[in-house]
Amino acid sequence: MLFALLASGCESDLEQLRATNQCVRCYLNESDLAGADLQGANLTWTYLEHAMLDDANLSGVNLNGARLSGASLRRAVLWRADIRKASLVRGVLDHADLREANLSETDLSHAQLTGARLDGADLTAAVLRFADLRGASLKAANLQQADLTGAILTTANLTSTNLRWAILAQADLRATNLSHAKLINTNLSGSNLTGAMWVDATHQCSNQSCDGKAY
Residues 50, 52, 136, 140: is their CA dihedral positive or negative? Predict the structure, then answer.
């Protein structure tokens, strides 16, 4: 049942993927690939919208430009995956392993990333508007110029994260760890920093704006 098919018309693409571990510009929408071992697969510009990829091994996979809107990747391993310029709008990536993955310019708007591991990931210019990152780990991740408007980052770990020129307007940063994070020209307008550990790794914000409490 490794490649059980939910969407008709994709049999040949699934067979190609199974035989060669690559399927460029294929149509795998709504396919059931839960638990599949696709380590190092080439899925460039492939359509995987609403696909089931829970618990899949996608380490080192090439998903450059892939379309994964609404896909489920709970607990999936995407260590060092190439996911540049992909679409993961409303994707479900709770507790996924995205350490050192390249997600630059990827659209993760409204995505669920609770408890996800994004340590060392490249999210340069990524779009995470209204994404749910509660309890996620983004230690030493690169979020330069990323758009996190309205994102939920409560209890997330952003230690040493690069947030230069990032947009965090209206973001929920309560109890977030910002120790040694780079906040140069970062837009924090309207964000809630109550209880957040400030960049000096010493002071904790005592109010929403953190004004005069942690600088």
Answer: negative
Cα–Cα distance measured from residue 172 to residue 154, given in angstroms and rounded to the nearest whole number: 6
Number of residues assigned to the chain = 215
Q: Residue 75: CA atoms inside 13 Å, Cβ hemisphere, count?
A: 5
State whether residue 18 is helix, strand or coil: helix
Q: What is the pTM of this model?
A: 0.92
Dihedral sign of CA atoms 160, 162, 164, 167 in order = negative
- Rounded Cα distance, 41 and 53, in Å: 14
95-141 pLDDT per residue, tens: 999 999 999 999 999 999 999 999 999 999 999 999 999 999 999 99
CA-CA distance, 191 to 157, in Å (whole number)? 16
